[in-house]
Amino acid sequence: MTKLTHLNDAGQAEMVDVTAKSLTERVAVAEATVTMQPATLKLIMEGGHKKGDVFTVAKIAGVQAAKQCANLIPLCHPLMLTSIKVDLQADEANNRVIIQSRCKLAGQTGVEMEALTAASVAALTIYDMCKAVDKDMVIGDIRVLEKRGGKSGHWQADSVVEREHG
Questions:
Q1: What gap in Å lies between CA 49 and CA 69, rounded to an integer?
Q2: CB atoms < 10 A from the CB of 128, how many?
Q3: Which of 55, 72, 80, 162 shows a CA-CA span of 20 to 30 A to 118?
Q4: Residue from 9, 17, 128, 158 carrying the catalytic annotation
Q5: HEC states along the chain?
Q6: Comparing 47-51, 84-88, 139-143, which segment has the lowest mean pLDDT?
Q7: Is 128 one of the catalytic residues?
Q8: pLDDT value of position 17
Q9: Cα dihedral 36, 40, 45, 51 sign
Q10: Is 69 in contact with 113 (CB distance < 8 Å)?
Q11: Is the pLDDT of residue 161 over 70?
Q12: 159 backbone dihedrals φ, ψ, rounded to 5°
């Protein structure tokens, strides 16, 4: 088993030194879901929410969150992200919104935390905007779907590989 990278030899937390790492293109895709009552999803989809366009506000919140990741997670490196995309999709069959975020840069460390932060904050924003009509919403399934770049190369979650290769 490999050791935790954010712990030094004495077992103390510290930021990873990435000075010697190669500058490569790095991409991470993350996902989160918000499950809700069918009427809440319908309200969002029809644009009838009194607070405004829920998807647009959640998308902007996700982008802002990715840019602030190092301010939220103590040992994350401040990164110069070159692309942040947040996409939201209504999944009517399961009464939920699926959020996918994609962060990209040319750098010395990965962007998984930024992608996870974007998806999570977009989900929290949906909850915040809709809690007045549906307090039973559930935020879940927050995970990394894919990462590219760096020494470890390309990785995809097993469920993504199964879905693509059936």
A1: 29
A2: 15
A3: 162
A4: 128
A5: CCCCCCECCCCCECCCCCCCCCCEEEEEEEEEEEECCHHHHHHHHCCCCCCCCHHHHHHHHHHHHHHCHHHHCCCCCCCCCCEEEEEEEEEHHHCEEEEEEEEEEEECCCCHHHHHHHHHHHHHHHHHHHCCCCCCCEEEEEEEEEEECCCCCCEECHHHHHHHHC
A6: 47-51
A7: yes
A8: 74
A9: negative
A10: yes
A11: no
A12: -65, -30
Mean pLDDT in the chain?
A: 90
Specify the range with the lowest mean pLDDT, choosing from 11-20, 30-39, 106-115: 11-20
Contact 125, 119 (CB under 8 A): no
Q: Which of 121, 118, 132, 122 is nearest to 43 (CA)?
A: 132
CA–CA separation, 17 and 110 (whole Å): 13
Residue 56 CA to residue 36 CA, distance in Å, equals 18
- Among 5-9, 42-46, 110-114, 137-141, the least confident range: 5-9
Residue with tokens 């010395």: 108
27 has a pLDDT exceeding 80 = yes
